[in-house]
Design a protein that fits this description.
- This protein is mostly helical.
- The chain is 95% helix and 0% strand.
- It has helices at 2-38, 44-138.
């Protein structure tokens, strides 16, 4: 459930970044088309230079946006990996500690039962010795 939520959020942010990149590309295409319509025999070279400059600027912007897109995807993966590592550590550390604690508890319980059993046997042996002594005295 938590992992699905993280994946959903990462997908949503990724989708937003993709839409932003596509919007930038569309905007650039519109600018280039507008420059093309303004072209005439006298300013073709000037418009070509301006078009190339804008194309380079947009290529840089697109590269930055793609980098951000990769960052968002990586953050989503890292969150999921952190949750996986948490459960891995839980399994490798907590469960054995829990077993050790249970073992100590079981051992203490067993020892107390054995001690009480010995005390009962000891009382039985004492009473049988006393009975034997009484029997010897009465003889």
């Amino acid at each position: 459930d938590v992992i699905n939520q993280i994946e959903f959020e990462a997908e949503k942010r990724t989708k937003d970044k993709v839409e932003e990149i596509n919007a930038s590309i569309s905007k650039f295409q519109a600018e280039l088309n507008q420059l093309g319509r303004k072209a005439n025999a006298g300013n073709v070279a000037l418009l070509q230079n301006e078009g190339l400059r804008r194309k380079k600027e947009l290529a840089k912007k697109i590269a930055v946006l793609k980098k951000e897109l990769r960052q968002v995807k990586r953050e989503g993966r890292e969150k999921i990996e952190r949750i996986g590592k948490f459960f891995q550590y839980l399994n490798t550390l907590f469960v054995p500690v829990l077993l050790i604690i249970f073992g100590f508890y079981y051992n203490m319980k067993r020892a107390s039962l054995m001690k009480s059993t010995r005390e009962i046997k000891g009382r039985d042996e004492k009473s049988s010795r006393i009975d034997n002594l009484k029997a010897e005295v009465n003889v």
